[in-house]
Amino acid sequence: xxxxxxxxxxxxxxxxxxxxxxxxxxxxxxxxxxxxxxxxxxxxxxxxxxxxxxxxxxxxxxxxxxxxxxxxxxxxxxxxxxxxxxxxxxxxxxxxxxxxxxxxxxxxxxxxxxxxxxxxxxxxxxxxxxxxxxxxxxxxxxxx
Amino acid sequence: xxxxxxxxxxxxxxxxxxxxxxxxxxxxxxxxxxxxxxxxxxxxxxxxxxxxxxxxxxxxxxxxxxxxxxxxxxxxxxxxxxxxxxxxxxxxxxxxxxxxxxxxxxxxxxxxxxxxxxxxxxxxxxxxxxxxxxxxxxxxxxxxxxxxxxxxxxxxxxxxxxxxxxxxxxxxxxxxxxxxxxxxxxxxxxxxxxxxxxxxxxxxxxxxxxxxxxxxxxxxxxxxxxxxxxxxxxxxxxxxxxxxxxxxxxxxxxxxxxxxxxxxxxxxxxxxxxxxxxxxxxxxxxxxxxxxxxxxxxxxxxxxxxxxxxxxxxxxxxxxxxxxxxxxxxxxxxxxxxxxxxxxxxxxxxxxxxxxxxxxxxxxxxxxxxxxxxxxxxxxxxxxxxxxxxxxxxxxxxxxx
Lengths: 144, 401
Prior knowledge:
By secondary structure, chain A is mostly beta strands. Chain A has one domain. In chain A, 6% of the residues lie in helices and 39% in strands. In chain A, the strands form two sheets. Chain A has a five-stranded antiparallel sheet, covered by helices on one side. The model of chain A has no long low-confidence stretch (mean pLDDT 94). Chain B has one domain: 3-Layer(aba) Sandwich (Peroxisomal Thiolase, Chain A, domain 1), CATH 3.40.47.10. In chain B, helix 6 packs across helix 10. The mean pLDDT of chain B is 93. The chains are: A mainly beta, B alpha+beta.
């Protein structure tokens, strides 16, 4: 098991045909982003069709998991009982390298709360929530 | 009068804190609608259209029966969701009376968060121990699989993300957000209906309050209240016989520029450039174009404020300043009655009057055009009312007749 930052009682995603490859890859600690199999445009979250060329065929790009912090919020109010002992936590929107600017909402973990800002370099880390669910979190890139 | 549809009646129950209502939400809906019809001098039997919005629980069908309508000819709910829909419901009503589908349409909202659940929270199944994003099969809920597991569990976090981006890009400050909250509280202090009317707020109070979801502190967040309100819309011809002074719906528009489809927190649709905008610029362009007026003609504004920063996005989307300049504009006192250049949310808004998801903003706009506001802008002839930035939205222009 990996290091843990969030409790078991976080809401689990309702997995659909479109989103299953993302979560299956996450179980193997691989970050994959959906792209259109026809025109190649990346999109996230995974959707059934490409809004640009309307192809329903999807492919997946495995990305290195590095990127930059686009925006964030330090959340202080626990909206679930399970989060009472977790707050404050950082919700982070990450612009992922190698995806044409695709963004992903996740968390920044182990980061100093008083020096956050857009543009910080981050990299993915993994949190095994259960035998059937692993989620990507992010931490500051050590070279940053 | 260039607008064909007119508002001839407004009605509200008492607004109270969440859980303090002494009657059920549905009963409050009935009372607010009857109050609006009494204000209009129109008998309930003459109502032939009903236009709710958001996730309204008081059904047009039961209301039509309980209010004794002689015939229901029109009922529609705008697809602009939640707080994006109050002005969309006004658009539906205006379309109905202008096209002849109906003659008297009541727009209404009843919302008792005490009787029902607190609004906006991610709905899960499986209990507190192993919650799962509700498997409804709806695409909107599939998107929540990319927000809820990461602790994006309610509107505070969802709307904090674009505002933090606005601060990063433009240098907008927490103090500037505080000016919005403090200005609206001052407006509420003159409004006897305002839930927070007797609770003064200083910038120091704002800055010292607990953080909810950075950058939003406690007083940046809207109230959670119980109550109901209603607006009566009819034709200009019928309005000429109304009891009070009719207020023209000069123009209405709804939609989104695409950036906000699916919600910014899910990152579907928004571009890097659009992320810190409200998504209502197209609505604004169509609204002003239909009315043949410009932002400079607006005397007073009611801008949707589920969070203080949303007012800033509204100011920018609707052309009162350039993107990034709304923070300094709020700080300058421009939004404050009576001396600001654009007195805004003159009844206190969602932050300080009540959270009726913006239909109370429509009602305050009507009061301003009647000359009956408790923070009345002198000689006001044109009022902009907007619904929520950051989601598919809507807006109307109200004109003194």
